């Protein structure tokens, strides 16, 4: 499973408030899964932390999926397909969707609408 930043923002807030909420419950229900994030998501999350150490500690709990040539090419294919169909999405969402497709995983997000038009992408709402 690859999570986008919407999931991690919710999880981080729960942890900061010491509240057991829906993000933590989702992790409990999927404890047997490999839990990961793209490098793009990792970068997005950096903006929400006050120290590099806190950001690193948080992100290092999850498998990191790299941005590489395969992801770049897959993102280009997604972009061209969406453009032909008159559907556009944000640049970061393209990279995240491409990472999930290359990793063969399910993308977990609160923004299903941002990803629902990507052919072949398995999207799970949290």
Strand content: 5-15%
Give the tally of structural domains: 1
Strand segment tally: 5
CATH homologous superfamily (4th level) name? 5'-nuclease
What does this protein structure show overall?
- It is a single chain.
- This protein has 126 residues and is α/β, with parallel strands linked by helices.
- It has a single domain (2-125), classed as 3-Layer(aba) Sandwich (Rossmann fold).
- It has seven helices and five strands.
- It has helices at 5-17, 22-29, 39-46, 52-59, 69-84, 91-103, 112-115; strands at residues 2-3, 36-38, 63-65, 106-109, 122-125.
- The strands form two sheets. The chain has a three-stranded parallel β-sheet.
- The longest helix is centred in the middle third of the chain and has 16 residues, at 69-84.
Task: Name its key features.
three-stranded parallel sheet, 126 residues, two-stranded parallel sheet, 7 helices, single chain, 13% strand, Rossmann fold, alpha/beta
Topology (elements, then pairings):
Layout lengths: L1 E2 L1 H13 L4 H8 L6 E3 H8 L5 H8 L3 E3 L3 H16 L6 H13 L2 E4 L2 H4 L6 E4 L1
Parallel strand pairs: 1-4, 2-3, 4-5
Q: Summary?
A:
The protein is α/β, with parallel strands linked by helices and 126 residues long. The chain contains seven helices and five strands; from the N terminus they run E-H-H-E-H-H-E-H-H-E-H-E. Helix 7 (112-115) links the parallel strand 4 and strand 5 (122-125).
